[in-house]
Design brief:
alpha/beta, globular, eight-stranded parallel barrel, two-stranded parallel sheet
Length: 381
């Protein structure tokens, strides 16, 4: 079979483009503790057997994507949050081989991976998954990791210029039919070439999570999926933010999806959910690790009122600063409806105890999402 015959429109092969009103993914379970900076015993402990179970459960439940975090060192504290991690490209290839339908991401910190290598690794995963691969492009923010690699640490906006050229080079490697020379500001390559090409046409979708002006411009002009952090939980404010991101892309003739990270605590009663949230955050939170993380992000104690600082700490411990969905299954679905009205296309979910709480989501939340019209039932697809 020729390479040309293998090429397929990604809209048909990649579940990222499903018709569900609220798409779903699971994130960060390639890292110890996932997204919860807590010391509770049931927090996610990285291992392959449970990783495999989570991937297969999500796939069978019809989730759209699985997203790994690109991480190379932890944040200290008792938990040493995210210290143990699976590398994301090899993780994606392994996950892709044991699943049938779900989209699989790799996360790439572009200054740490040469475009020629990245293009080849991405193509490999795309073939393993029969066109279900997605690439999360990160332009860099954790300096200690760059120091590990001996990589150059660039000024903020220059990182996005570098990232734009990196993506251009990778996409040419994915699509050019002949060898080519690449002469950019950051990359020089003679007789560049990569074969085979990805299965997806025109090429695998790219996600980016830039929140600054330069990051938003990068996402609007380069990415297919903007992984946004909502600045407010208010419906009108959130809708304005999402509308702005989508409009920015449409102004340059592009269409993007907007996804967010949500951390979930779902229990039979709201009181039980709130009590557990308080337990793993306030009583068992790793405040040394979260303060180290906030320092890296530039959130300084001396520049914030105490109340604002505590809110930052709380949400980072609870779920790395994600959007909270806390309560009963019905309340969770109500919260998803608010996000849908904001224009959010999909949610990447994290829990404290991934395996048990994913099972609960599948049993108790998914049927309610179908009833609410947020997702089709299996016999409607």
């Amino acid at each position: 079979m020729t390479q040309k015959a293998l090429k397929q429109d990604r809209q048909n092969t990649n579940p990222l483009y499903s018709n569900h009103r609220m798409k779903l993914g699971v994130m960060a379970f390639n890292c110890s503790h996932g997204s919860a900076i807590t010391t509770v015993e049931e927090a996610w402990q990285l291992n392959w057997p449970d990783t495999k179970d989570i991937a297969i459960m999500s796939d069978k439940a019809g989730f759209e994507v699985l997203l790994p975090v690109g991480r190379w060192r932890g944040y200290g504290g008792v938990s040493n949050f995210n210290n143990a991690t699976y590398e994301s490209f090899t993780w994606a290839s392994s996950i892709g081989a044991i699943t049938d339908n779900i989209g699989v991401f790799a996360t790439c910190h572009v200054p740490l991976v040469n475009p020629v290598m990245a293009a080849k690794m991405a193509t490999t995963v795309d073939h393993v998954t029969s066109g279900r691969f997605c690439l999360n492009v990160v332009c860099g923010w954790f300096k200690d990791e760059f120091d590990m690699f001996g990589a150059e640490w660039r000024l903020h906006d220059e990182r996005y210029q570098y990232g734009s050229e990196w993506v251009e080079f990778v996409r040419r490697l994915w699509s050019e039919k002949k060898e080519f020379n690449f002469n950019g500001a950051f990359f020089k390559s003679k007789r560049a070439w990569s074969q085979p090409k990805p299965l997806q046409s025109p090429f695998p979708p790219i996600m980016n999570a830039g929140g600054s002006e330069a990051g938003q411009e990068f996402a609007a002009t380069i990415a297919d999926m903007n992984f946004a952090v909502l600045k407010s939980h208010d419906l009108e404010t959130g809708k304005n933010q999402v509308d702005k991101l989508k409009k920015r892309a449409s102004e340059v003739g592009r269409k993007i999806q907007v996804w967010i990270h949500v951390y979930v605590v779902c229990r039979e009663t709201e009181k039980e959910a709130r009590n557990y949230l308080n337990h793993y955050v306030v009583e068992k939170g790793d405040y040394v690790a979260v303060n180290n993380l906030m320092e890296i992000f530039g959130v300084q104690a001396q520049s914030l009122p105490q109340e604002a600082l505590e809110q930052f700490q709380f949400h980072f411990i609870a779920g790395h600063g994600g959007y909270p969905l806390v309560g009963t299954p019905e309340q969770i679905v109500d919260g998803l409806e608010v996000l849908s009205k904001m224009g959010v296309d999909g949610c990447l979910i994290s829990w404290v105890n991934y395996k048990d709480e994913l099972s609960q989501w599948i049993d108790d939340v998914l049927p309610l999402m179908e009833q609410a019209g947020q997702r089709f039932s299996s016999n409607e697809q």
